[in-house]
Design brief:
With 360 residues, the chain is α/β, with parallel strands linked by helices. The protein is 46% helix and 14% strand. The chain has a single domain, classed as 3-Layer(aba) Sandwich (Rossmann fold). The structure holds S-adenosylmethionine (SAM).
Amino acid sequence: MADLGCSSGPNTLLLISEIIEAIDEKCIQLNHNTPPEFQIFLNDLPSNDYNTIFSSLPAFYEQLTKEKGENFGPCFITGAPGSFYGRLFPSNSIDFFHSTNSLNWLSQVPSIVESNRGNIYLARTTPPSVLKAYLEQYKKDFSLFISLRSKEITPGGRMVLTILGRRNEDPFGKASYFLDLLSMSLNHLVSKVCLVLRLLIEEEKVDSFNMPYYIPSRKELEGIISAEASFSVDRLEIFDANWDASNDDDEIKESFISGQKMAKYVRSVLESMLAEHFGDAIIDVLFNNYTEDISNHLSKEEGFEHESNCVAAVIGLKSDDVFVSGTLEHLGHVVEVHPHGQVPVATVVVEALKSQEESY
Ligand SMILES: C[S@@+](CC[C@H](N)C(=O)[O-])C[C@H]1O[C@@H](n2cnc3c(N)ncnc32)[C@H](O)[C@@H]1O
């Protein structure tokens, strides 16, 4: 199996252990006496910190043996550096593809002819030509992604993807409001420039920064999948996803705590990109402002409306057998019964996760 856009941090191996656990539970249920061997490819861009992942593998294997016994697996984890917008694996070689929060990233900044003034992503003041360029780039990239994976997946294999999505067709909807707030924080730095900080950010720097990111709607995803035609949508579901990744409604009502968490999350994802464009010097000030801007926003009544309107799209695809989906904890909603006699690995995973979720 392969995890695409695995990053390097606690979530990387957490996801793998969840999948292994799900397969193990299913094997026990099905009385499969020989535990499966696992070959797992962790993919991200070549600049990803694979050394950190690899150095945590001995402890991971040891823990697995401790929990599951000497006869379990074995499990072989390998890095597969490269862009998922290119071929990563030989034909017919992967049973199960997974990806969380990575397929919103475009292969490049869309080709924009008009300036997206004052914005780093799509916003109400974005010119229609910029909106069109973003949508075109997303269509091209997601379609290419599906087509590449269709060559690499084994017959009967499955793919489960988490994608931050929009609940409706409004391209400037609430799902991207956290990026509107980041534009606002950057623009504060432009205006404070004159007053206090002397040229900290030039206005043109903000105007020329456009994130290679897209938050699709359900209709757009379905349209791309159907036009690409390798797969058909089996199932697509939308789930609420709190800004600060908290499941605790009381906790998110603490606007400052929630603002801090959200700012840290966005910083961990965007810091290097922002530093490259604006320089290292602004980063701390920017994210202090951003924490404040998010917290202020959340302290207003409608702030939480925005937060709860951030959603993850869950899609089930099948051709002769592919599949896309939403957040890990919701994989259980995407169940595909394979038409062939054997139960493929991914179906095992999804069914096991489904029974886990039903017992919650
Ligand atoms: C927000 S992180 C998600 C990390 C992890 N999957 C998780 O859910 O915690 C997005 C990851 O996608 C990776 N990524 C973005 N574009 C990519 C591409 N074209 N090919 C492979 N990985 C990519 C980034 O490097 C980053 O590690």
